[in-house]
Model the fold of this input.
Amino acid sequence: MRNARLLALLAALAFASPLQAGTGDYPRAAAPDAPSGHEWEAEQLLGLNKEKPHATFNSYTDVESAKKILPEFSRYRVPLDGAWKFNWVKRPEERPVDFFKPGFDVSGWREIAVPSSWQMQGYDVPVYSNQAYLFKRDWPRVMGEPPRRFTTFVNRNPVGSYRRDFEIPASWGGRGAAPGPGTGCRSRPAAGRPAPARRPAAAPPPWGR
Done:
């Protein structure tokens, strides 16, 4: 009987220890403040200059609009679907690094439909691979030279950059603006901070597709 009680006590302590330590009590790497230029070789990095995730929400001017649920019925939403200025390059080092700045001239860029897949819009090569790698297998590096038969021999690691200017309605007043789901811009309350009348919209960091 004493042995059974001792075993039961040890089992209880074994299960209790992790709980006392607390879920998630382990060291975490600090998020970088700026791109290093090698984000495509860091699969653990899921975002940079990115807001914390939250539940989807929409703002409405009145109760009747809110009852319709769909964001199309909100006056505080600007759809951004449609034609965007687009630049595509075969390698990351060829990308326009400062393309997101308002003063950067994109007048010579072609346009692309958003949302869409650039491979279906005449850029790069549409490829489906179930298991095989499309690049030289050399973890964590992805820029090594693959065999010549690979599409990535020429298009080593393509980068697409998107730009579009849009107007923030004056009726939004001092409300801030944030990108929303479904390629759109939605407003949100901002304490004492006026919303600019015009701003450029850019794609996520240039290493993303």
About this structure: Residues 133 and 140 are 13 Å apart (CA to CA). Confidence is low (pLDDT under 50) at residues 6-24, 189-199, 203-209.
